[in-house]
Structures are given as structure tokens and as C-alpha cells.
Fold these 3 entries.
Entry 1:
Amino acid sequence: MNDDQLKYPIGKFIAQDSYTVTELTEFIRRIEALPQKLKRAISGLSDQQFDSPYREGGWTVRQVVHHLADSHTNAYIRFKWALTEDSPTIKTYNEKLWAETPETKLDINLSVNLIQSLHTKFVALLSSLSSTDWNKQFFHPDSKQYIKLERMAALYAWHGEHHVAHITSLIKRMNWK
């Protein structure tokens, strides 16, 4: 595998200008499925395996799982801001530095449980959105773009699967299961 395949095992995210109701429903289903996919992917791994990077120079499995919890928490909050404020400017964060804070060395199940609870709330929120809500947006100060919630749903459906694929492709390459 080349480095790009290791970085993007399911391909890079490609945004569309808009999404259909059917596509949005599918994004919600994929977001809902993430906690179970993640649990299946990491089931039976040892601490040594949790501390193995998915590629040279990449995050460990443990860091990937903690990153998913951090990133999806931020996504949920961004949805709430966009739904309750008029095109708010979001707060950004340095995900690379967040992946190195001390709690990212703790038990992986802390983040697995957080993801499970968070996604229950996230899916309930997404399932309640109207067509008007899906078009609400926030301003991202790094990209200098307004981002619609429908695009965020597409991105986070992809994001969860992207990181689970980091884990499952490592497991396959290393013949761990």
C-alpha cells in the first residue's frame, strides 16, 4: 500500500453542493452505525495493539479512537451552534495536539462509551432536522468558508468510516484477527 492509501483507506472526502433527503437519511444511518463498527473493529485488541500506529508517522489506534470522540463532539456542538445562532463563527482546534493530550493514553473504552452516548444524541438531533435546518451553516475561520449542516452530515458519516478503516486496515495488514 502506498502512503495515500494508508492515509485515506476509503478515499478522500469529496463534498457536493447539495444532498438529497435520501442521501441525508443514509448519512444519519452511517453516523448511527459508527459506535458498533468501532466496537467490532477494536474487539480483542491488546494494549500493545492499541498503541500501534496505523501507518508510519500516524496516530496509534488508541489516539484514533480518542480523536473520534473529540472530533465528533466538536461536530455535534457545531451543529448546535448553527441551529441556534445565525451563521456563527466556530471555534477551531488543533486536532494533532489534541491527540497528544494526557487523557489520550487512558483506557480506550472511555472514548468508545462517549462515542456511543454522543451518537445517540447526535442521531436524535439529525433525525429531527427540517430541510430549512439542513441549509443552516456556520463560518469556519480556517477555511474562510460557510459550511452547511448537510455537508457536515456527509463529512462525519465519511469521517467515522475513514478512521475505522484506519484500524481495520492495520488489523488486516498485521494479521491480528
Entry 2:
Amino acid sequence: MSTILALEKISKRFGAVVVANGIDLSLGNGEALGIIGPNGAGKTTLFGMITGTVAPDSGRVLFDGRDVTHETPERRCRAGIARSFQIPQPFGGMTVFENLVVAAAFGGGRRERDVYAACAELLERCGLADKANRPAASLTLLDRKRLELARALATRPRVLLLDEVAGGLVEHETAALVDLVKQVRASGVSIVWIEHIVHALIAAVDRLVVLHGGALIAEGDPAEVIRRPQVAEIYMGIEADA
């Protein structure tokens, strides 16, 4: 499997707090990668360094073999790196459809009149077609999360970064979201998913890594990684010998 995204010796600290300490991580073309770790482990900061909103202190970010470490978020987005946010951030006064048009035209670098059909198709895929003309601020949490995902997809990404998209959802809503993520992955988009809802990750990703103390402490098959005593102790607060 060829590599679409790679972090090489990425390091970042905020004062005395080290959030990334020489991390090496790669994502294959068409792969779905899950990332877990305790709060404050640096997971969202890692996304910031991939998308360009956070500058690493050292190391490189490679996208499709090209060094993008110093490129702007806008250039990275138009090259094919998109992300969602843990707390959905739609333009509340715009309709659902208008939110997608903005993402497709400005994030994707296309003319507005050229994106309407693609945005309509995305509304169908993400279960939002019947809400196209509603103000985004009026949506339920599940639909705001669907819109957050749809807006990222509207930029036509090759790599999609998902940040806690299942947080705050009840079980059947989480299942619906997992199905949607699987559909996105099946379309050929490579995915990196940060999530605390571990069973959602295990259902959707090929590989799982655990981030703790600025380092990757475990990596491999999701079901196997989550059973490791070190992971249970650090991530779930369960004594390794319990």
C-alpha cells in the first residue's frame, strides 16, 4: 500500500508540556487509521500540524510524497487534506446547502456555480437532503455532525481527518455515523479518526495507534491494541494487573 500522508519526527511543545516528541506516523492510500489517547495527549494538536493551523517545532509533514510542512491551511485543503472539528462549527445563519457551497467553492477552490450538483449529492449521502434549506443553527447534534462531515467532504479530500465525530451521540446515532464513515472510506478517501468511543473506531478502522505523553505507545490491529494491559492502564484507567 502506497503512503498518502506521513509525519516524520514531528515534535511540538507548549512551554513545559510536550504534546509530540519525534512522532513518526504514516497513512496508506485508502486506509482508515484510528487514534486514541487520554485527554491532553496531543491528538487534536497533531491534526493541527497536519492541516497547517499549528506549526511543528521540528519534523516534516509529507502529503503524497511532497513536503507541506510550511504550506498554509488553505493550500493543504485544496491539495486534498480536510478535517472536521470536535465541536461542529457551521455558519449558523446560512442554510445547510449554503454551508456546503461555501466549503466546496472556497475550500475546494472551485467556482460556485460548478459545485451545486456535487453539494446536492453530498446532502443525499449524508442524510441531510430534507434539511437543505434549514438554517444550520437549527439542526440537532447528530445532523450538525453530519453537516460537519459533509462540509469536509465538499472540499473533495484525499485524506479526511475526523475529530471526535461520535462524541455526544447516543448508540443508534453513533451506529449511523459509523456507517457513513465506512461509506466515505469505501469511496477511496483515506481517513484518520480521533475518537473516545472506542467501539466505533474498532468497527471502522484498519489500524489503531495510542498517543500518550507525546509519543505513540502502541500500534496495530484495533482489537488487539485495545486489549494490551498498558493501553488499558493509561487510556482507560484500569490497573494492568487487575
Entry 3:
Amino acid sequence: MKNFFKVCFFSLLVIGLFAGFANLGVPRIEPAPPPTEEKLDLGAMTMDQFIAVGERVYKGKGTCTLCHNNLGRAPLLEKAAGVAEARMKDPKYKGEADSIESYLIESMLKPSVYVVAGFGKKGSNDAVSPMPDVSGGSIGMNEVEIAAVTAYIQDLGGAEVTVEIPSDVGEAADDEEEEQQRKPYETIEDIISEVGCGACHKIVEEEGENGPDLTDIGAERSAAEIRKSILDPNAEISDGFEADIMPQDYGVQLYAQELEILVEYLAKSK
């Protein structure tokens, strides 16, 4: 009987220590709401201020610099406004734009209407762009942000800024109910598609070539290491790649359960 009580005491002690470590020793991942849109007073904004908003979205929420950079992952956009008219006359062009402004907007919403040679999805003969629609998925730029980025790209290329600062978007938004959190993505395919992992990585059926191949990452990294790489991508950089390329806000973009679905999938990819 004495030994029985010793075993019970020891078991309770072990359970208590494990529970304490699980609750206090392991960092908790709390679900976070999607990034909030910048509050803008459009009625009092000058064009220079609007262009500055476009630059912030371009380098921040829009994640444009993830691919449009000197590493050659996507065409540089400094001259995009200057070559827009030539591209609209190219036989490969499949869009409906009739001005530089409408071409730039169309390129963000329907990037496959014209794919610069050498920058299409592998095997598509430059007919399909790996770039997502910036108004959907994890980027989710609204009408004002798209207009601001368009103005920024026009200004960046030294072209005339023809974009007009929207005046009615903010008023319409005031009449809407408070934005609710989106529904969680339930499958790994949804997560990969919405977050845009396939733009850079080979994963699921995506064939991105701008980031490390993740098809068998589970054979090299543990679940904890994979989770850390997603939440803090600059902590360890894979050979041949540079820091500050992968977005560092997936801890905000993804709910906790979505993050764990992704981590579990990658950890089992062997």
C-alpha cells in the first residue's frame, strides 16, 4: 500500500510538472485578426500624400517587394508605367486596358493578361503569371490602396500621375457594419492558395522557384523548426537566399489553427 501511494504521488507530480510546463513554458500562439486597413482622410489628402500612401502599401501590406526586387524574381516596376503602352500593343496582351493607369490596375487584378517573358509559371510558356490577384487572398488590397499603389508606380516611373484620389469609398464604408473576422481556412490547399506560398516555394501542386523547395522539408526540419521559420523567417536563412524576402507577418495573417495545419503538413513532407 505504501508503494501504491508513492506511485500515485509520483504520477501526480509528473502530471503537474508537465501541465505547468505546457501552460507556462511553451509560448502560446494566439489567433490574431487580419491586418487592419489604414485610416485615411481622403478629402483632405494631397496627391503627394496619396502617393506616399501608395509607397507604404507597396512596401508593406502589398508585399510587392517580395518578388519585384533586384534578385530577379519578377520584373522591376520602376519602368512599368513607361512600357505600359508598348505592352498593350504586344500581340501577347490579353487585357482590355486603354491607358497606362488602367493597365497598371489590370496588372494587379489580372496579372496573367500580360506576362513578361521569362516570368511566367514554369511550363506555362509565359502564359500564366505566378502573381496573385492583389485584391484577394492574404494581400487583400482595397480600391483605395490599389489606386494609391497605381499612383506610386506612375510617379516612380516618372510618368504623369493620372489617378484621382477616391472620394466616395470612405463614405460608403461608414455605412457598412463593422468588419468581421474571416472564416478560417480549413484545408492545406486553401492555406497555400490564400497565403501565396506557391509564388515562391514548391509546395502541394505549386511550382514556385524563388524560395526553398518545401516538398520534403519534413525530412530536414522538425515541426518546431518549421514553425519558427514561418513566424520568424529571418532567424535562419537557407543557403542561396537573402533576409527580408519572406513576409514576417504570417503570425498575424494566419490563425493559430491554420498555422498548425501548415506546420503539420510540412513536417510530414518527407
